[in-house]
Amino acid sequence: MNTHQEGGSTNLDAAIESLLNVEKQMRLANDVAGTRKAVIDIVELCYKAGAWKTLNDQIVLLSKRRGQLKQAITAMVQKAMDYIDLTPDMDTRIELIKTLSSVSAGKIYVEIERARLIKRLAKIKEELGQIDEAADLMQEVAVETFGSMAKTEKIAFILEQVRLCLDRQDYVRAQILSRKISTRVFDADPSKEKKKPKEGDNIVQDAPADIPSLLELKRIYYELMIRYYTHNNDYLEICRCYKAIYDIPSIKEDPAKWIPILRKICWYLVLAPHDPMQSSLLNATLEDKNLSEIPNFRLLLKQLVTMEVIQWTSLWEFFKDEYENEKNLLGGALGDKAAEDLKLRIIEHNILVVSKYYSRITLKRLADLLCLSFQAAQCLDPTRALEIEHLGKLPGSGGRETSF
User: Fold this and answer.
1) How far apart are CA 63 and CA 65, in angstroms?
2) How many CB atoms lie within 10 A of CB 265?
3) N or C terminus: which one in the chain shows less Cβ crowding within 10 Å?
């Protein structure tokens, strides 16, 4: 058996040696097609013989040969990449990816291939539970500088970088990476884009078949941003992300998809602190005809724009079940913190209402209107507690001077 293996190995070595001589002649003659064919033949020969270590060695050797042609290295890397999924075991696969990645490093003409190799290796690391290593690997590559990479592939790569950062709870880096994607890119009309590059420009490669469409990438982008903003409890930004997903045509056409998203938009609108953007979004959402499909939420938003005091206890009684359902659906995004913030938003709304109608009011009466204890009312705002207690004017007042 050993004699047979040695004989096979000798035959392989002899065949490789012969092809290396051909490759040398073609390279020295500057014959691009001939050199390319010779290196591909060597790669194929090693694969067919199942000699994976020899394949790695030959890839490194061929890439380092003096005056090696760019086209030959590109052809060799691309050919060897076809064999990654055909490796007999995980160690062999990782070794081949690492060899091809090191050969491609620093070479602009195979930068896309290297990015794809790094992505493959990161995926393997992630499957092995090595999230930190996978994230570090992905961050080595700055695809935004690649002129010939398809736009969708670039976005998909950056989104993968963001996802891995979120998985390892590196929120600062996740935000930095997410800023490399301009949201305007999702609104571009693909049919109006220039197909033919100008002379001298890089020819943009087609994205691989497994890269999602631009609108699918838009959904993935905003779902990742929701994860980021949820960490900071930034309710208004979460709401805006859901609004962007809601506006995707494939979502808008299917009630089974848009109803849960519209519910989330409503919840996060109510949870967001009162400011001009929140107010604008609130009014725009109220004008949405689709809101009639979820009347309870229409009622909730209507209460927030109506200048009347909202009784917290009755409101919570009415919406508690809806809230619990949403909490379960969101996987805990609407937790106890959100429940406390919801009560706070209702109190803020009621203070605004009170300030419209009363210019002077006792703290006890204010506490009754806000459904709070006297002590809780005192703690509402340390800078204004004394004003309210001494029947001082509430900001924004313009109503009748009435004391209770």
Assistant:
1) 6
2) 26
3) N
Q: At what angle do helices 151-167 and 131-138 cross, to 10 degrees?
A: 150
Give residue 79's Cα distance to chain centre: 31
The model's confidence at residue 201, banded by pLDDT at 50, 70 and 90, is very low
Closest to 174 in 3D by CA, of 228, 242, 232: 228
Q: Any residues with CB less than 8 A from the CB of 295 and at least 6 apart, and which?
A: none
Do 359 and 401 contact (CB within 8 A), yes or no? yes
- DSSP summary character for residue 273: P
Q: How far is CA 400 from CA 326, 356, 361, 390, 403, in A?
A: 41, 9, 11, 17, 10
Give percent above pLDDT 70 in the chain: 85
Count how many Cα atoms sit within 13 Å of the Cα of residue 176 in the half-sphere of its side chain.
7
Helix axis angle for 70-81 and 32-49, nearest 10°, is 30
CA max distance for the chain: 108
The band of 154, judged by pLDDT with boundaries at 50, 70 and 90, is very high
Average pLDDT, the chain: 83
Q: Tokens for 154, please give them.
A: 């670039």
What the block records as the tokens of 390 is 């001494």
Question: What residues are paired with 400 via a beta bridge?
Answer: 358
Three-class DSSP category at 174: helix
Span 55-99, pLDDT tens digits:
999 999 999 998 889 999 999 999 999 999 999 999 999 999 999
Predicted confidence band at 309 (pLDDT cuts at 50, 70, 90)?
A: confident
Write phi, then psi, for 380 (nearest 5 degrees): -60, -50
Which pTM does this prediction carry? 0.83
For the four alpha carbons of 49, 53, 58 and 63, in that order, the dihedral sign comes to: positive
Cβ neighbours of residue 256 closer than 8 Å, sequence gap 6 or more = none
pLDDT at 403: 36
The answer to whether residues 350 and 279 touch, using CB atoms and an 8 Å cutoff, is no
- The DSSP code for 182 is -
Distance CA 270, CA 312 (A): 13
- Residue 273's nearest CA partner among 345, 351, 342 is 345
Whole-Å CA distances, 70 to 33, 99, 105, 109, 197: 12, 17, 13, 7, 22
